[in-house]
Amino acid sequence: MSVIKPLKAWKHLLKRPHTIRYPYQEHVDMEGKRLPTEVLRGFHSNDLEKCIGCKMCGMICMNDAISYEEIPELEVEKGKKIRPIIDYGRCCYCGLCTEVCPTGSLKLTPNFKLIDVDREKFRFMPTQLNVKRDDYMVDENAILFSPEEYKEKVKGNK
Amino acid sequence: MKMKEYELFIGPQHPGITGNMMYHLWVDGDTVVKAECNVGYLHRGFEKLMESRTWMQNIPLVCRICVPDPDVNEMAYSMAVERLMGWREEVPERARYIRTVVLELSRIAAYLMGIGSYAGALGIYTLPQWALGDRDYIMDIFEQLTGARIYHIYIWPGGVRWDMPADLPKLIEKTMKYLEKRLKLYDDVFFKNRIFFDRAVDIGVIPKEKAIEWGVTGPNLRASGHEYDVRRLEPYAAYENIDFDVIHYPELGKFDVLSSGGDAYTRMLVRRLEIEQSISIIRQALKKMPSGEHLLKHPNWFKWEVPPGIAYERVESSKGEYGYMVVSDGGKKPVRVHVRGPSYTHGINVAETILKGANIADVSQILFSLDICPPDIER
């Protein structure tokens, strides 16, 4: 038991803060690797050409986050033109939809940043999901805002 | 007119309460005369919801029953499904070791959070900041291993979702070394602090002879002097191949035995020592981890029918003993899933009993020392 030893905590006064100033500062792990890595379960990407509109993703989704929309421009058979819309207000990022996808077109990307006050923006239309997963890979994905940009983004949505 | 007793409501929104629950106290002066637990603020109907979902759809749901320590739920549910499927012996060896690592990491994270909030309840605000900051390094490991920081959805029936990346053991080892260094500082600032000793000794005592009768499990039971650990009694995952002692009162390692056991002081010391033990278990598991498969082949999830039967599986969580009883009638969905949460007994029966006679200032530290997690009271 000691009364003096707890004063050791004072030495932290001279150290830098432990917290990171998100989103202005990068998030790195203990070895200096930038996070998130490609494993992170974030927003989906869906290759519209590869997707066959089988609705398996909607069947496994227990949160009803996936609905469908027909895209007339697609050059496929008439019945196969539906593509998923994902509602990120409902999605829990479990990734079961990607596990059941028979063609492997639906994937999760490590992108998770979405700042908006309009709730309609949280429904991702099929064309919005049509990005290559590699485009979302960590380096390109890590768009960090400067304080001015961040203020501008929030102001624009008011 | 002199007022004899007055009523006090702590929670559901109170920093001195362990979550979204409430205690109704009858107080005479500074002493609690009667305490009544009031839950229902967090009821999400897990057990009923599970009856309307398929076997795999339940996995993202079960982890939400305990937020600080989610992996034990996935583990217990998966073990029960494995038992019904007859997969118990077939789970790949590598998956067992990865599960052990994940469960122990999760235990450390939960203990850090528990110790931090306990110190906050005593008014030592340095430790909560440190503990939660250090917990984040474990979240970083989880992010790279499982793809999520809190709800991992990683332990599946028949193994683990995906294999452990080759470079991860290095990061885990580095984090463990860092934690060991930090624990020494925690000792100086908190565990060997005179204030902690003065405030916590002989507060909220669970007597050894009453502990089993009251349904106490986990670190709380070990602090009362019982050598009881599900990891030892019924080894699951890879615990049978791992060497560890059950830390219990009065064997508190480097800490002097200064109380008569079963009090808030001993409970926190047991948690503190178990962090070091978990670090040693993780190291052993990483060392012994074989290579090979990580998941058994699942049937088609939409047509997966589990053979009829009842399975009860239990695991040791950071709060106590977690149990899952799963009933199947051979269909695509469970007929009944019952969760035995450790906080059910700790939060209702035990807390109501030991709060009697406590001071108002000690109420929150008693609750935090029991490490109550309200979601598993009202699944």
Low-confidence stretches of chain B: none
Distance between the termini of chain A: 56 Å
The low-confidence parts of chain A are 137-144
Radius of gyration of chain B: 21 Å
Percent of residues in helices of chain B comes to 40-55%
CATH architecture of one domain in chain B: Orthogonal Bundle
The number of helical elements of chain A comes to: 5
Quick structural summary:
Chain A is α+β, with helices and mostly antiparallel strands.
Account of the 3D structure:
The complex is a heterodimer of chains A (158) and B (379). Chain A is of the alpha+beta class and 158 residues long. Chain A has a domain at 39-146: Alpha-Beta Plaits. Chain A has helices spanning 56-60, 96-100, 126-129, 138-141, 147-156, and strands spanning 44-46, 66-70, 82-87, 106-108, 123-124. In chain A, strands 2-3-5 form a three-stranded antiparallel sheet. Chain B has 379 residues and is of the alpha+beta class. Chain B has a domain at 90-302 and 346-376: Cytochrome-c3 Hydrogenase, chain B, CATH 1.10.645.10. Chain B contains 13 helices and eight strands. Chain B has helices at 46-50, 59-62, 71-85, 93-122, 126-146, 168-191, 194-200, 208-211, 218-223, 230-233, 264-288, 342-355, 360-369, and strands at residues 6-10, 22-28, 31-38, 155-156, 159-160, 309-316, 321-328, 336-340. In chain B, helix 4 (93-122) runs antiparallel to helix 5. Classes of the chains: A alpha+beta (158), B alpha+beta (379). Chain A binds chain B through residues 1-3, 5-6, 8-9, 18-19, 29-31, 33, 35-37, 39-41, 56, 59-60, 62, 92-96, 99-100, 108, and chain B through 53, 56-57, 59-61, 126, 129-130, 133, 137, 140-141, 143-148, 151, 153, 165, 170-171, 174-175, 178, 185, 188-190, 192-195, 197, 258, 301-302.
